Amino acid sequence: MDTTQRTDQQRSADRRRRELLEAADRVVLRDGPQASMNAIAAEAGITKPILYRHFGDKGGLYAALAMRHTDALLDSLRAALDAPADRRERVEATLDTYLTAIELRPQVYRFLMHPAEGGQPGDQGFDVGKHSAPLLRRMGEELAQVIEERLDLGPGGQQLARVWGHGIVGMMHAAGDWWLGERPCSRAELVRSLADLLWGRLAAAGDRVGGPGF
Amino acid sequence: MDTTQRTDQQRSADRRRRELLEAADRVVLRDGPQASMNAIAAEAGITKPILYRHFGDKGGLYAALAMRHTDALLDSLRAALDAPADRRERVEATLDTYLTAIELRPQVYRFLMHPAEGGQPGDQGFDVGKHSAPLLRRMGEELAQVIEERLDLGPGGQQLARVWGHGIVGMMHAAGDWWLGERPCSRAELVRSLADLLWGRLAAAGDRVGGPGF
DNA sequence: AGACTGTGTTACCGCAAGTAACATGCATGT
DNA sequence: ACATGCATGTTACTTGCGGTAACACAGTCT
């Protein structure tokens, strides 16, 4: 048996799996994360047990679905992070890439950030609590790696890079979530404000007259 | 009718509501956010319909529960934020207060950050997606207000303060979530690393030899 | 032909959210 | 004293989901 050569059946199964994922994608994007397995099966033109044979349980399906989108988003973020420009420009490009993505496809974003749904007690599929939002964790780790590779942070730099990776990703996420809901300013302004924050403007700002500084 | 004077019945109902919330608290802290209404009712020594009369639906109960803990946490954060010290010390004290809280009561933390559970299709109670994590939003707004009151940020300062408020809260949250799961370092180190990030060390760091800067 | 495997179905279980419909203690108005 | 209301409590039910068992039908290999 050649392990690299895939049999026809394997390829057929993979193709089917992709079709099912695309159907699930349509339903989840239409109905939100509480889309039922029945609805997904109907969209795919089949019935429930097939979904369960392919993905185990709802958590498995959602994890597979999330993986696709997460991979796609991470690819575009990596591209922005690796662009030939100086540090500030890269940071702004990365922020802008992320914000553009969530702005263009808010439904995908909602699904990725709040995948913990349908939590029956028997639902051992997703394990909420251990990895709240896999996307955030993965982005944090990737950013940490880039920071650690590119910046000279002295002793303890690796750990510092990880803290910063997760912290910056969290900053981007929370600000983006809030911005997406309220739209208080343009995307460019948001990018600039966040980059300013990362560039130490918080520490550099002067106190307001009449009181102690923050 | 005096609107400020509460009748005996009102006071009794309020007391009962508090008792129910405390029972719910015990169950949620024991079983996680997927605790069933039946289990909560049993813990309180009553049956389901009473819970529904008091809180409408599961979302209402969880919202009330979250409000209690959120208020408590926000109070302690405000205290740290208002301490008589310089800016850096206050930032570190606030970070430390938050991290201590989530470290001491991780179950409460999990509940507050991932309240969207048991999402049946009929569950119109919580409206996931509109307000993902009420705690984060409230912390962001409060911090924004403090920043705007205390710092002189020039024109557009109010908007900048809101972006920063939500961004900093998100940074704290994501880093805390990651730290709570992996415990890669002590709390003090984490606080210091995050404060360093806010103080612009990212921009000030030198490039690594052999490649362009991040 | 007959066994095996992948794909599909119907019909069902268990369980949780949420809802009548009915019972009961207790204060009040006449 | 007695009926009226009202809050508080119950049992029993419906609905709808996740998940599974059991069965049915194609193609393929020996």
UniProtKB/TrEMBL annotation, chains A, B:
Alphabetical list of SUPFAM superfamilies matching this protein: Homeodomain-like (SSF46689), Tetracyclin repressor-like, C-terminal domain (SSF48498)
The organism's place on the tree of life at top rank: Bacteria
Pfam family of the protein (one): TetR_C_32
Record-annotated HTH tetR-type domain positions: 14-73
DNA-binding region boundaries: 36-55
Gene3D superfamilies found in the cross-reference section: Tetracycline Repressor, domain 2
Keywords: DNA-binding
Name under which the protein is recorded: TetR family transcriptional regulator
Species assigned in the record: Streptomyces tibetensis
